[in-house]
Amino acid sequence: MDSKLKQRITDTLRKVRQERRWTQAELAEKLGLSQSRLSEIEHGKGSLTAEQFITLLKLFNLPISHFIKTKSDNSEAQLQKALARLGGTQLKEDPNVLPSEKLNDAYNVILETVIGGSPRLLTALTPVIILHAHPPLFRKIINKLKEYRLENRFYWVLNGVSRVIDRRFKTHVPHNKRFIYRRAKTILEEMLNWQTMIASEYEEDRLDAGIVSEKTFHQLRESRDALALVWKVVTRIREEDFYNALLESEKND
Fold first, then answer.
1. I need a surface site. Which of 10, 12, 204, 212 has the fewest CB within 10 A?
2. CA–CA distance from 123 to each of 16, 160, 213, 231 (Å)?
């Protein structure tokens, strides 16, 4: 295997494991490895077998392109296109991007965005969450995210959207949005009341891709807003970003 390709795979393996908050011991057991061997692989002193690599893709529900990037890889653009079609009208659809069959419904689009979307696309979920607010859909997403220990991240998004709806009603809400916003607010409150506070069970969620050092991690942890603090999400995203996404979507409707 090409050394650069091998390095990309091992770097991504470590990053994804940390993002999903799996310990080395937990992942090693699933892959049939010792923790020490997995540690060696993550530091470039070995590689996974083909069978172990396939198992890894299944465990994390990721395409091979997440580990092996190609010039034609446009997963971020496909996700943006799917969000735009589901109500994120503030996002532009690139006419040159072909739609992905996987991203043809709200469940897959929301799930994919929460698990691996950029901060920009996460805030773009705001109008999509409002338009597709449905308790069975949200519970299905939460149950899937529990496999990755990322349900707190989704609750953080839901809480953020709920708060910006409250804020929006303190101003002039377009007439055609009032019922939609009120309905979504009711459902979001139901979801937030339905859950039991689980944030304390997990380590901090290092959301932003730029968190590559402990110094950056501690700086972001100290500077995050109250909403991120509640859900233990370490990110530069603030409640204001969800609010701005909502305003932008209204302008583009």
1. 212
2. 21, 9, 24, 16
pTM score over 0.85: no
What confidence tens digit (pLDDT) does each residue in 62-114 have? 766 677 654 445 667 777 888 888 888 776 655 554 445 555 688 988 998 89
Beta bridge partners of 234: 206
What count of Cα atoms within 13 Å lies in the side-chain half-sphere of residue 245? 28
Residues paired with 206 in a beta bridge: 234
Percent of the chain past pLDDT 70, that is, above it, reads 81
Do the beta carbons of residue 129 and residue 192 sit within 8 Å? no
CATH superfamily of 3-66: lambda repressor-like DNA-binding domains (1.10.260.40)
- Compute CA distances 107 → 47, 86, 111, 128, 140, whole Å: 34, 11, 6, 11, 8
C-alpha torsion sign, points 145, 146, 152, 156: positive
Q: How do the domains of the chain map onto residue ranges?
A: 3-66, 75-252
**Nearest-CA neighbor of 153 among 99, 195, 96, 94?**
195
